[in-house]
Amino acid sequence: MTTTPLKPLTETPRHAAGETKTESQMELNAEVNNAYLHVITRLTSAADQRDHQTANHVKRVSAFSEILAKKAGLPDEQARLIGLATPMYDVGKIGIADEILLKPGKLSAEEFETMKKHVQIGGDILAGSGSKLLELAREIALTHHEKYDGTGYPKGLKGDEIPLAGRIVAITDVFDALTSNRPYKTAWAIDQALNLLTAEKGQHFDPNLVELFLQAMPEMIEVIQRYQDKF
Ligand SMILES: [Fe+2]
User: Fold this and answer.
1) Closest to 98 (Cα-Cα) out of 115, 116, 79
2) How far is the CA of 140 from the centre of ligand 1 (A)?
3) In sequence order, what are the residues at sequence separation of 6 or more whose Cβ sits closer than 8 angstroms to the Cβ of residue 84?
4) Which carries the bigger pLDDT value, residue 106 or residue 21?
5) Considering the chain, what percentage of its residues have pLDDT values greater than 90?
6) Where are the domains of the chain?
7) CA 58/CA 176 separation, integer angstroms
8) pLDDT for 11 beyond 50
9) In angstroms, what is the span from residue 128 Cα to ligand 1's centroid?
10) Looking at domain 24-226, does it have CATH number 1.20.120.530?
């Protein structure tokens, strides 16, 4: 009895099959990336809605952060990653009780200690994914309240001990908070907010990044115009 030898698998048109697989993998990657960004946006907006942050606040802070990262000399791809990771910086607020998060007046010392926990809660939510984007988001969540002179929290890191992305978001978050209208306060003028950033150079903020932020004001103003809040 003669047997027809099995065709070796290598006879399959490898190149063409390889191409098809690559294309479908790319489609799947694009789909996963897209879904991933939507999940992040929705998770973030769930956290933000609790303390009256607007979706546009997060979009502005992210865009400011990407621009500032580029000005700081990061390659476009790295700056883009910072822009994508930024929206999650306050996601830990989801774990803070309403009576503290939504308290209209000043927090007591004890309440402020509780409020500070949002950085660690955010860090925990974002930990352990193995994703470069979520690791960066975690770093930002953990370090956006550190101050350049070492008086911030949670660790009191100083200067370059604070990761660059955390130093960037420290500036962009405060700038946007100052220049935005909120139900309980009117916005500061841009010049007034820039004066505060300048006054806090080397104390709250990285002095070099403040300079770069000031130089990038035309681009920052475009961002403000693109994502205006409507009350
Ligand atoms: Fe925060």
Assistant:
1) 115
2) 10
3) 37, 40, 62, 133
4) 106
5) 61
6) 24-226
7) 9
8) no
9) 21
10) no
Torsion of CA 166, 171, 64, 187, to 10 degrees: 140
Report which secondary-structure segment, H or E, holds 86: none
Q: Looking at 10-14, 94-98, 167-171, 222-226, which range is the least confident one?
A: 10-14
Q: 171: left (phi > 0), else alpha (psi -120 to 50), else beta?
A: alpha
Q: What's the 142 CA to ligand 1 centre distance in angstroms?
A: 9
Residue with tokens 């949670």, as numbered in its chain: 154
At residue 70's C-alpha, the angle toward residues 66 and 71, to 5°, is 115
Amino acid at 31: E
Structure-token pair, residue 165: 């992305």
- Centre of ligand 1 from the C-alpha of residue 212, in Å: 22
205 DSSP β-pair partners: 201
Q: What is the average pLDDT across 170-177?
A: 96
Distance from C-alpha of 102 to C-alpha of 50, rounded to nearest angstrom = 8
pLDDT digits (tens, 9 = 90+) for 123-151: 999 999 888 999 999 999 999 999 999 99
Active-site residue numbers? 93
Task: Give the tens place of pLDDT for each residue, 115-126.
Answer: 999 999 999 999
